[in-house]
Design a protein that fits this description.
The protein is α+β, with helices and mostly antiparallel strands. It has 2 domains: 2-34, no CATH class; 36-176 and 218-573, Gamma-glutamyltranspeptidase, small (S) subunit (Glutamine Phosphoribosylpyrophosphate, subunit 1, domain 1, 4-Layer Sandwich). It has a 7-stranded antiparallel beta sheet. The chain is globular and about 60 Å long. It starts with a helix and ends with a strand. The structure holds glycine (GLY). Glycine (GLY) is lined by residues 382, 400, 402, 424, 453-455, 475. Residues 382, 400, 402, 424, 453-455, 475 line the site of glycine.
Length: 573
């Protein structure tokens, strides 16, 4: 937390006059507002997620002797029940894995485009976008990858029986669970979206209104689908009754997802990106995520800067951070796509000479050499969880339906929501997607292709050991949430809860606006930045949800933080 870092910093200053000491104390008090709780400590394993029920499911798997991979599988299924805006079996994601032996690995279970989709899939005969087809409804869905990804994770690093890992989620769906404030608020925000399809409304709304805290939410059809997965593994989802229901309904509603698409889906194991940064090594997401490369670019441009001396929240630090972020996001808009289809120039983007050149271009004023784009309100989509077991296996997993509650479609009888991940492709060159992101040719739709992502499950090593494992939801804001939490923890030396809770800033190059959080910046700092030419969004808003584990060397314990912006929990083994 800020307090512990600041206590360390002010202790030697006690010899200074009382006035200075009081001034420092007042700074301490004014900065401490976001430190809302202490981190959770454990001498064994830990699970951090946005859902206390799902974190408890994972911790119970660890208590039964399961590996972090076992726990991750159980948490992912549990979140598909208890956090339906993003927890899913109808979407996809990435798991970064630190096994006990062997190199770190990256399981890519990102959705793929159906065989019938191509670059013009969402365009009319005049080449214009056909409404919101990439965002809402049956045609927005890519081929779901989550079940295949979890099967692979379990096959490679799991120990407990598969059925036992699906069981807690099946039970939560069949017997129901008590809706908490976080879920009730999320359902309320998305009530209009959830009412567009009757099957979805039947489950996630209570007579047309969002379920309220204290209500019991039962999901019988989802329990049936989970039972099929529990009994038959991937075949319970990609073949048989679930697949039949999905394909039949698709045909009736102008969707294109077919049996062949489902059968062809493959989760892929990739080598994660590795890069030295200051005295650390960062291991993070490779394409088809842009996230790892962009966060390494932002950090890499600041390789030689003395960030600690600038200070957290200072105008000097924020100016530099935002300028580096703009440059990296400008690269994101053109250079990335599915590595199975295009070459991603990662080595060039992370070349120290290139990064130094980009850094040297940053002057004292904000750069405005940007293209137009419309930043739409961030939806609280995607979700991240981090698990560590007592033997040292760590899983950092981000998965998603894309927008909150994805396409809004639940196919009758299946109980799960289909993603709208197709909107992460370039639907039309020059048009921005739901996150206001400008994307390029390399990310155009092709059959079997994975859309570009910003998801950034990440580890940071110091020497041979992981000292930080983290990730976040929030589309492009993910990259900035993760980057800034790394800096907060490792450079500004906040404890992990303080690092997760500290006010964050988002810029994505286009549109040319700093997204800021309520109470996240003082008036004087903002004035300094505005004088340099920075433009702030009209209203502040909170974004992201860091779910992180970090090693506390002083106490020789692992600690965890679930972002105080939301209602998640870290549960020890
Ligand atoms: N669907 C958000 C992302 O993958 O970046």
């Amino acid at each position: 937390m800020y307090r512990s870092a600041l206590i360390e910093n002010i202790a030697p200053l006690r010899r200074f006059p009382v006035k200075i000491f009081m001034l420092l104390l007042s700074v301490w008090a004014s900065l401490a507002f976001s430190a809302t709780r202490t981190p959770v400590y454990s001498s064994k394993g830990l699970v951090a997620s946005i859902s206390p029920l799902a974190s408890e499911v994972g911790a119970e798997v660890l208590r039964k002797g399961g590996t972090a991979a076992d726990a991750a599988v159980a948490v992912a299924f549990a979140l598909s029940v208890t956090w339906p805006s993003a927890g899913n079996i109808g979407g996809g994601g990435f798991a970064l894995v630190h096994p006990i032996t062997g190199p770190d690995s990256f399981i890519d279970y990102r959705e793929t485009a159906p065989a019938a989709a191509g670059p013009d899939f969402y365009l009319d005969e005049k080449g214009e976008l056909k409404g919101d087809e990439s965002k809402i409804g049956y045609r927005a869905a890519g081929i779901p990858g989550t079940v295949a990804g979890l099967v692979l994770l379990h096959k490679k690093w799991g120990k407990l029986p598969w059925a036992s890992l699906v069981e807690p989620a099946r039970k939560l769906a069949a017997e129901g669970f008590i809706v908490d404030a976080g879920l009730s608020e999320s359902l309320t925000r998305s009530a209009a979206h959830l009412s567009a399809y009757p099957e979805t409304a039947k489950i996630f709304l209570n007579k047309g209104k969002a379920w309220q805290r204290g209500d019991r939410l039962v999901q019988k059809d989802l329990a049936t689908t989970l039972t099929a997965i529990q009994k038959r593994g991937a075949d319970g989802f990609y073949k048989g009754q679930v697949a039949n229901l999905l394909v039949q309904d698709m045909k009736k509603k102008q969707g294109v997802l077919s049996h062949e698409d489902l059968l062809n889906f493959k989760a892929v194991e990739r080598e994660p990106l590795h890069k030295k940064w200051k005295e650390f090594e960062i291991v993070t997401a490779p394409p088809p995520s842009s996230g790892g490369t962009i966060l390494l670019e932002i950090l890499g441009m600041m390789q030689g800067d003395k960030l600690e001396a600038m200070g957290s929240g200072s105008a000097e630090y924020l100016h530099l951070l935002i300028e580096c972020t703009k440059k990296a996001f400008a690269d994101r808009s053109v250079w990335f796509g599915d590595p199975a289809f295009v070459q991603n120039p990662i080595a060039k983007l992370l070349d120290p000479a290139y990064l130094a050149k980009r850094r040297a271009e940053i002057g004292d004023k904000a750069a405005h050499d940007i293209s137009p784009g419309e930043l739409l309100g961030e939806k609280p989509d995607t979700t991240h969880f981090t698990v560590r077991d007592s033997r040292g296996m760590v899983i950092s997993n981000t998965y998603t339906l894309n927008g909150s509650y994805g396409s809004g479609v639940v196919v009758k009888g299946t109980g799960f929501i289909l993603n709208n991940e197709m909107d992460d492709f370039t639907s039309k060159l020059g048009e921005s997607n739901m996150f206001g992101l400008q994307q390029g040719k390399r990310n155009q739709i092709a059959p079997g292709k994975r859309p570009l992502s910003s998801m950034s499950p990440t580890f940071v090593y110091q020497g041979k050991d992981i000292v930080l494992a983290l990730g976040a939801p929030g589309g492009p804001t993910i990259i900035n949430s993760v980057t800034q939490t790394i800096i907060n923890r490792l450079i500004f030396r906040m404890d992990i809860q303080g690092a997760a809770d500290a006010p964050r800033f988002h810029h994505q190059w286009a549109p040319d606006k700093i997204v800021w959080e309520p109470f996240g910046i003082t008036h004087d700092t903002r004035k300094i930045l505005e004088a340099k030419g920075h433009i702030f969004a009209d209203e502040p808003r909170n974004f992201g949800d860091i779910e992180a584990l970090a090693y506390d060397a002083e106490n020789q314990r692992w600690t965890g933080a679930s972002d105080s912006r939301n209602g998640g929990a870290v549960v020890p083994e």
